[in-house]
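Renewal narrative, Specific Aim 1. Our central claim is that a sequence can be written position by position from structural information alone. The example that follows is taken directly from our test logs and has not been curated for this report. It begins with the structure tokens describing the chain, in the order in which they were read.
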């Protein structure tokens, strides 16, 4: 079974985009080379600290990486649910297939840098220990990565699990946006770190006692001639490898129970919230969307990740020495409205058929405008609250006006961008009742990138006057603050109204086509429209989704054979 699964994995990889395989291979090679250079050229007195930190970075990278790169190149246990296979045997086989690939090979080569470290400290007798430690560490890291990814998928069935997943996603997004703030002090101190290590600080003890430091402790013990201690550390690594392997194999068994936990109480605000909603079609859509954003684990993951993104943005700013930038945490939450809402119709799956059946101009308009209102409210409240807290913490009271202006304009423009991208680039994901993992709701990288930059571009008038307020100093007249807020309101309202209007017309003209895209993923449809930029963008998004669906069909055919 292991051989067949490995062959299936390589078949899936061959049908993935070639540039992704190339980039992954190049990055893996660079990481391995950097690890070996660190082990060989670090000062002998600092080698343990430096290499331990690098191995810990490998461990963390493996834990976080699968969340970002999961998809067609990962064998999902639910693919094999209906096959008459022993669940434990299947789980072990799926885990074994994970070790066949560039990633695991790169991890092993990086771990073998322990042998280079043994040579640098002139301890040839420790090389066998280094090789064994590298193998055990590789098994631990790869198994732990698969375990974390599987636990993350299982966690989506509970509120606590969604919160854990959102913290992870928020950290990743913040690292991509402002991670340089935390990295720059480390880069500046790199020459000193390579020669002095952590200098006997608490960080040295933390790294040494972390799993990334265990292989080094075994090598150091063997170099000192303490073979009992070396065997003890190798035994600890063996136990860790066994525990993570058993846990990963258990989590890789196909899950056949209920997907989510049944609710036993009425949701917060269900009794009073309906009285605050406007009557009519639009109010019904707003109420439905607010409840969906609150109850659906995948939508809840989006808003919670946005909040954690804002929090980590403030943390990275403080680490990088720009503490007052933490006041922009609420703006970061508001900015995520365009990214998190760029596939609203894809989140709902084929539920769009209800709108197709009741298709009328006023129904389509109410659906789009109601979604706009709901997403602006749902992201706006935490954005304002988080900004208020961060302003108090950082003491950035002089920047309240530009911060409020940015939140207003980003919420308005972002709500318009979200519904427009949701219509133009509707991308099918796994049907809501079949979702397991945190990224099953469907995503389109092209649409997300366009949504981000289009939101920033459409907010430029407010960004310009807010920049003048921020850097203009105390010489600005009193009325300037009111002008900034006025520009923000006009910019936000116009952005929401114009972009939402385009989305209404687009959905009304292409409703059957949009439903077909979600109902029959990968189906070739005749390119329609007037050939404007929206048609080109829609076609590009459709082609990307079609290629993904085609790869999935080929994978299914391969499994059947």
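The sequence written for that structure reads:
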């Amino acid at each position: 079974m292991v051989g067949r699964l490995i062959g299936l994995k390589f078949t899936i990889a061959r049908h993935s985009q070639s540039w992704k395989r190339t980039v992954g291979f190049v990055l893996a090679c660079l990481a391995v080379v950097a690890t070996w250079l660190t082990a060989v050229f670090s000062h002998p007195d600092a080698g343990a600290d430096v290499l331990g930190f690098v191995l810990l970075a490998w461990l963390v990278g493996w834990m976080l990486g699968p969340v970002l790169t999961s998809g067609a190149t990962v064998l999902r246990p639910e693919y094999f649910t209906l096959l008459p296979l022993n669940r434990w045997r299947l789980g072990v086989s799926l885990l074994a297939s994970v070790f066949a690939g560039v990633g695991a090979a790169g991890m092993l080569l990086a771990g073998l840098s322990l042998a280079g470290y043994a040579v640098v400290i002139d301890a040839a007798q420790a090389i066998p220990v280094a090789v064994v430690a590298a193998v055990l560490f590789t098994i631990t890291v790869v198994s732990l990565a698969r375990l974390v990814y599987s636990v993350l998928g299982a966690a989506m069935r509970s509120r606590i699990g969604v919160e854990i997943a959102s913290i992870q996603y928020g950290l990743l997004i913040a690292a991509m946006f402002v991670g340089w703030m935390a990295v720059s002090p480390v880069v500046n101190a790199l020459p000193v770190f390579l020669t002095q290590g952590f200098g006997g600080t608490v960080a040295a003890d933390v790294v040494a006692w972390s799993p990334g430091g265990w292989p080094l402790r075994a090598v150091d013990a063997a170099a000192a001639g303490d073979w009992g201690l070396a065997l003890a550390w190798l035994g600890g690594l063996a136990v860790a490898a066994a525990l993570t392997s058993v846990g990963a194999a258990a989590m890789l068994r196909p899950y056949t129970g209920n997907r989510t936990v049944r609710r036993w109480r009425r949701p917060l605000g269900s009794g009073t919230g309906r009285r605050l909603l406007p009557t009519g079609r639009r109010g019904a859509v707003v109420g439905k969307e607010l409840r969906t954003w609150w109850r659906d684990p995948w939508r809840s993951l989006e808003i919670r990740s946005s909040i954690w993104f804002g929090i980590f943005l403030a943390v990275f700013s403080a680490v990088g020495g720009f503490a007052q930038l933490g006041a922009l945490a609420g703006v970061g939450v508001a900015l995520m409205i365009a990214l998190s809402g760029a596939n609203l119709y894809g989140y709902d799956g084929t539920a769009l058929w209800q709108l197709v059946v009741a298709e009328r101009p006023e129904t389509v308009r109410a659906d789009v405008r109601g979604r706009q209102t709901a997403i602006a409210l749902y992201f706006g409240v935490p954005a304002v609250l988080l900004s208020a807290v961060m302003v108090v913490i950082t003491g950035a009271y002089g920047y309240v006006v530009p911060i409020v202006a940015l939140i207003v304009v980003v919420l308005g423009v972002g709500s318009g961008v979200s519904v427009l991208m949701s219509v133009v680039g509707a991308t099918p994901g796994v049907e809501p009742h079949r979702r397991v993992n945190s990224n099953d709701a469907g995503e389109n990288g092209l649409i997300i990138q366009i949504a981000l930059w289009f939101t920033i571009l459409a907010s430029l008038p407010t960004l310009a006057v807010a920049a003048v307020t921020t850097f203009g100093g105390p010489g600005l007249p009193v009325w300037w603050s009111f002008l900034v807020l006025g520009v923000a309101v006009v910019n936000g309202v116009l952005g929401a109204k114009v972009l939402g209007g385009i989305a209404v017309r687009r959905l009304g003209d292409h409703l059957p086509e949009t439903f077909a895209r979600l109902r029959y993923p990968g189906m070739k449809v005749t390119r329609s429209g007037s050939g404007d930029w929206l048609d080109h963008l829609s076609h590009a998004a459709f082609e990307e989704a079609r290629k993904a669906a085609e790869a999935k069909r080929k994978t299914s055919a391969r499994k059947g054979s």
